[in-house]
Amino acid sequence: MFSTPSRTGSKRPTAQRTATPRVGTPSHLNPAVLVRSPPQTPPFRPATHGPSPARSYATDQGSDFMEMDENHGREDLRSVLNADTYAQWPELSVFLFSTLPLEVQQALKSNDLERNDYLGVVDEDISYALVVSEHTTFVWNCSVRGGGSSTCYIFPNPEPSSSTSKIPSTPPMASLVPRGASREPGLVLCSAAGEIRFWNNIATGLTGGEHFQAANISLSTSEVIVQLCRCEPSIFIAGTSLGRLFRLNVSSSAGRPHVVVVPFVKARNMLSRVASTIFSSVPISGNDTSIVSIAVGANTGIQDGREVWSLSQRRAQKWRVSADAWDQLQLDEDLHTVLSGEISRKLFNYETFGSELALELIDLGVPQPDHIVILLSFINRTSKVDAMPAARSFAVTRLSASDGVFRVLSLDILPYKGTNQSTLHRPRIFLIDGGAVAAVKFKEAFTVISLAEGATFQATLSLKDPWDRVLAIGRRINHPPLTELIMMTASRGLLTCRLDLPKIQRSSLDTPTQHLRSTMEQAVFFGSITENPFLFQLDPSTDGNLGAAAEQLSQDILASRSDLLRPAIDLRVHLADRRARLTHLIKFIIENGMIGQLSQITRQRLRLDSEKLFVAENLWSFHNRRLADGYPDASRSLLVQAISNYMLSIGGDAGEDLVRLFFRTQIGNIEVIFEELQKVAENITASFDLGAGGIAVVSESTRILLNMWESGSRHRHAEAALYGVDDTKLLVSLWTGEPRQIKVAQFFLEATVRALKEEVASEKNASSTVHEATNALRFQLKELATMVLAMWQERHDYLASNASDPESVTALTHFREHFKTVRPEILRALVRWGGVDTAYTLAEDYWDFRFLTELCNDPVHGDPSRISTYLERHRERFALPLYQWYLENGQLRNLLEPQARFVPLLEAFLRTNDYPRIQWIHDLAVSRYDAAATSLEGESRTETKLATKHVILSISKLCTLAQHVDMDSEPVLSAIQGVDHELDSISVHERLMAEFRAALMDTGDSGSSADAMSEAVSFACGSSLLRDQPGLVTVFRRLTRRLFQGLVLNNEDLSEILSLKDHSSQNDDFVEALRIVAFSKELSEGRLLTSLRSIWRRLYIADDWSIYHDTANMNDEQLDQSLRNTLLYTSLHAMLHNDDVPPTMFLSPRQVLEPPTTAELVTRYPGLTGVQISEIEGAYAWENQQMQTLLREHNLESWHEKVVAIEQRDRQVSS
């Protein structure tokens, strides 16, 4: 696993800043598992170290190692990291130094490292390394980069303990014995049982190492050796599980090796203290006395000796050890209680310490005199919620021991968590730069943390494979400011961890998002390396914005801003490498199971960045091919000109290779090539008549555009699944869907069409070159049309996906309307210039079914056989515009005679579009007579042509009769009666026309215009009311003109004209008028009453009531007969005799006195001027005055009653 360098903001992190340890098989080993386990090493913080102190060698041995020369120390990192770099930040980089010797590789591969332990040592003083197994020790010189073929010295280990022994069977502890630069070192091995083997020179390992000096350490029952540390080149210190220390002096005399073992004299003081605590109130576990670490401070002089520290689970001891075999215990203190309290207070806010922390002291280092750095681990047991082994947190604490009292200076949590590890693989701390930086080796991880005050750098690298191990860590002394650590791994051998110490100390605070970005950057550039032993993982619990981090990294790679991008002279390699990095980025996120944290916007932006690199890669290849093949003269280097113009416009240097610079740094703006090409083409074509040169320019520019668009489109669709993009919701505008790019594409499409037109116009005199280029343009036109329509569609999809407010909805609506206009124009251009098949395809692809309909029925390019296919494939989407086109072009037969399987489509069209005029024909064809009658009846209400309405009503009546068998049923009679009333109205129209035309025959005006005939009729056939009232004349002429035009009068108008005409030749006009109004369904109650008043008022005025003023010379019989001759009697008798007018339709003289208002007249006579309305209003007022005169002077009310009585009597007599 991997944790990027982190800069935490606090020197005292809280306990919540933890991570989950790896459990079980890592997901990268299981192809079916895409979700990786959470990272073990969340970011945390740092402490200090001193001058390359010696340390314990239970598992490894750190040392200053292989001093670099000045030039090597200052070499460019990139030259080192290109080949075998596994991780790189400004502060830290890791790369392969050398592989293990073949013998070591074979031994490691042939053993299960979970069952068979191996130890490693990288000796910092003598440039040698060793690996120790249970039975064999391997030593080799590791000063040369590369390795693998180094001479390997092999030695037999002390015999392991018997199976009955309580001493664990583990590899012995090992250390090399320095012999100077000119001699090979010696080797010391010490087993857990205390058996020592000493080789004065490792050269004997070439012959099996059978000759050695043996010695034994006298141990108590169940006591074992657990630590071995080199104090001086020939002095070693061993520590036991019971807390005892032994000095081992190795030497050579006369070529014979010697080993002297001496126990520390004052060690018994420690044992006595331990014994005294056994009976104390605080319980101490059996392992509390075991030495866990021995560290050696700087040499303070021969007389004073060296400062040596030993650490047990509870206590720390400080010794003064001299070279002349004396030792002195100077300090012995219990640290367990002090450190437990410190952790409780600073991390968990406990005032007092309990046993819940399970504190464990692991290792120590000595940065300077009277100062130590301790590596420890703990667990808050109160937070454990299950029986699983709880993950332990690790921390580094700095303590001062001046005046014999320990004081805690700092406490820093490591960005790592893990479970308890065996004694053999206990974590080890390594101090750098006087304790300013610490490196900690875990079994499967390696952590670097800054311990200096105010510094925040920390990083953890974890091994990828479960079987792999970090065997050892050593240090190379380098020229400042660089320091190199050497890490030995089982899988890859020796790795160099290069640290830039000033940058580490200056490292700034990382936000969670920056931390995520750093993690992904390492994974992108190094995670895909098969040989990389480290595992890169994202922390799913991070608070950072994964989308923002991914976008930042993607943009940096796109613009070549990442320092990790490898320089490449070959631009194709450079572009391919950048695109591969972006592919690694999205795959890494997917493998970590965090793709769900990326929004659709982020996914589309990431895909867009990758798409632009793909376009650039293909465009560069296209450019190279064109250069190799040779451009046409007029279009030579169009791409170069376009790119150069753009680069100069943004401040590029004309002396540079602007094209390559563009492809390295400006791919994010690759769409500008479209616009620049248009500018170049416009400038060049202005110098030509679009002959050979102009056509070549247009053709070559088009090739470039098509290459770019096709590459982008291909990548976009191919990578949609990888990025998890929903292309139905386009939230990010595509570079090919920008308005400026669409405009450029249309420019070249129009230029291509223009070139084709000019070529046709001058075809006879054109050169063969022009003909060849023109043929190419014809082919390119098809591709251009495809591209332009696709770009329009992309823009539409983007606008549609983001139409969330009125403004954006309006913009989308306008765009759609514009698209509907542009699309058929492009398709028509295709048809004209030989792209008929392409036009068919594109019209179908973009659902332009109106154009598809027109093309199918085109007399030249049409293919009616396609119609059935499109109907079958697209159903209503194609059927509706097809049938509409049939209607508009009068092809009713094609419309109304569809194939049987398409009848439902026709019916859907008729229902959707409400075409009753043809609907009834289809209904008759399928024997739906009731539906046909209903359609015809509805159509008759809106029909304005008299003759047509007559036909419609007649067919409607026939349909009604055809539908029913029982003609006497109430529904049938009611339906027929309704049609009959309408037909009666038609008969009245025809009677009036016949009457008026007969009158016109007498006047000789029958062949005049409708206006002239209506004027003539008003004189010939108008009633006496018209003579004195111009308003009524206007109304009469208006209505008769419509009659002469063959138009239908509504019931209100028809009753009006009947009441205004002359009644001398026809005395049933008022009866017809009343019947028409009575059966009218179109009049409101108010309008009905107004019409009735007008009819009755004119009926009363039509008779001469003045003759009844003096009836002295008339007997009753004569008077009754005279009244029977009035229009009033005739009309009443006709209506009452037939009994077809409701009683409410009869109005007495006083009921007709109220004339219509001005507002009613304006509504009644739309289109008339105000003057005309005033004249009509005056006419109605005059009629009202006439009625009042008749009532007042001629006793009309009495005569009305008399006429009604005569009619009733006559009707009774006749019955």
Automatic annotation (TrEMBL):
MF-aspect GO terms: structural constituent of nuclear pore
Keyword Membrane: no
Protein family (similarity comment): Belongs to the nucleoporin Nup133 family.
Protein name: Uncharacterized protein
SUPFAM superfamilies cross-referenced by the UniProt entry: Nucleoporin domain (SSF117289)
Gene Ontology CC annotations of this record: nuclear pore outer ring
Pfam families xrefs: Nucleoporin_C (PF03177), Nucleoporin_N (PF08801)
Gene3D superfamilies, sorted: 1.20.58.1380, YVTN repeat-like/Quinoprotein amine dehydrogenase (2.130.10.10)
Domain Nucleoporin Nup133/Nup155-like C-terminal: 865-1201
Broad class of where this protein is predominantly found: nucleus
Ranges annotated as biased composition (Polar residues): 1-19
Subcellular location: Nucleus envelope
Keywords: mRNA transport, Nucleus, Protein transport, Translocation, Transport
Gene Ontology BP annotations: poly(A)+ mRNA export from nucleus; protein import into nucleus; transcription-dependent tethering of RNA polymerase II gene DNA at nuclear periphery
Domain Nucleoporin Nup133/Nup155-like N-terminal: 97-451
Stretches the record annotates as Disordered: 1-68
